[in-house]
Amino acid sequence: MDISIDLAGIKLNNPVIAAAGTFGNSDEYGQLVNISLLGAVTTKGLSIEPWKGNPYPRMVETVGGLINSVGLQNKGVKDFIADDLPLLRALDAKVIVNIVGKTIEEYAQVASVLDNEVGVDAVEVNISCPNIKKGGSSFGTDPKIAAQVVAAVKKKTKKVVIAKLTPNVTDVSEVAKQVELAGADAISLINTVKAMSVDADTRQSKLATLYGGLSGPAVKPIALRMVHEVSQTVKVPIIGMGGISNTKDALEFIIAGAQAVAVGTATFNNPQTMINIINDIKDYLKDNDLTLKKLSGSLKSN
Amino acid sequence: MIQAKCQIVEKKQVAEKIFVMVFEHAVIASKSKPGQFVHINLGPGSVLRRPFSVYDTYRDTFSILFQVVGSGTNRLATYRPAQSLDVIGPLGHGYPLEGEKPVLVGGGMGLASLKLLHKRFIDSKKDDVRVILGFSSNVCAVEWPEADVCTEDGSLGKKGIVTGLLNEELKSGADAVYACGPEAMLKKVGDATKGKKIPTYLCLERYMACGVGACLSCVCETKTGLKRVCREGPVFKSDDIIFNETGEKKNSAKKKKET
Fold first, then answer.
1. ipTM for the assembly
2. Do B232 and B122 reside in the same domain of the chain?
3. Does B187 touch chain A (CB under 8 A)?
4. Which of A213, A243, B201, B242 lies 20 to 30 Å from B58, alpha-carbon distance?
5. How far is CA B180 from CA A10, A289, B205, B220, B221, in A?
């Protein structure tokens, strides 16, 4: 059964994508997962120069989720092109490169460096990571600045530009509307929810940084609501994510208005999660005599 | 590394809250080297897997040694023989076998990564291999007759910390050191051999999410930059590690209550 999709002009063999920051840069999961079977993989956030990230501990499990404060540690876009991109080019899955910056100019620089690289199908503009002090979330929480970042990136690349939105705002639709106006070809959401975990014995935060970003099943209902809200506001395709752990979760996001879904934290629990979802979506569509197109945004009113 | 359902064939309680769990899987058993680890899915309700050193291998089986300290190990202890768990392994880089008179130093449950190493030294006729185990008190009755044991309160073995016994071994000609345990202990072990040209390998314990090098949760600082404990480690040359005081403090404080 054909479950391929057209995501802003990129043809994905299926709508299931590995989420940024959870699948490494290339073949980290290659011995466990047949990566070529995925619709697309998203790299970890890449900056113009290498970033060190935050001190350890940078991750803590909570009920139904995990909070991370990795802080976008990465080797920089140039080393990525040299070390990892050749491995990604050899895969059937499409490649989305997540890009980050401390200034609007830095985002544009990374996009510019990637623009002529064969094998990069899209850039995902990460204006939503809660773990860096400059940039990241602060860009994504202000609709005007979010739009400026997207516009600056758009100017420097012919690749498909995806804007990744933060849930840490009052009105996510307004941010979505502004990034669409600025030229975003697609929108992905949600990034992690700003969160905290305290150790009552030491009376310290369980993360070396005070706060981190919550992901996993705990955030799914929030993500679902936001995907629905945004789908009511914009025309560009939506990649829905946030706590997707199984096929049912993925279907819920598609019904709520997403064209594609991304899986992150669930891969840590079971690296086969995405493969299982791809297979089961086919069965679901067959059993219900549906296509992905018909299913997407098909939420019925109560 | 592979991912496989592994049946539990035996569960032994060896001390209060301390268990050995034996799993059946020919490939993981035969491929596991000393110092490597397995990443175990604890079933419904757990978001993350838990990493455990490969404690021992025998024919088609491998085992882990664990202490019940938090929600994860609590859940693990509820599993019984004939049940199966999803395991990824073996993971990471283990210990290289060096020296004619090696010393293995284990702190607390860190001893779990040393048992197989000891076996491999004996297999290769390094009968002078010595084992030093340290515990905070008389909590660990793991059977290891060859080991010299010390406790901080003197309730089991000698009173004192492992580095006291290690220094004696170094004086009597030990030529390679292997250690696993709390970071504060590892740092002291590293200091004990510093400048002595004795190869010293330290196995780090870290909170992990992916276990395969994708998420960058478990990084440690080294002289050649940040390294992933799950992928480039968990065993590092002592000289390469830069111990981070904040991480060390938080890590040991948390270990008491959680995993």
1. 0.94
2. yes
3. no
4. B201
5. 49, 57, 8, 15, 17
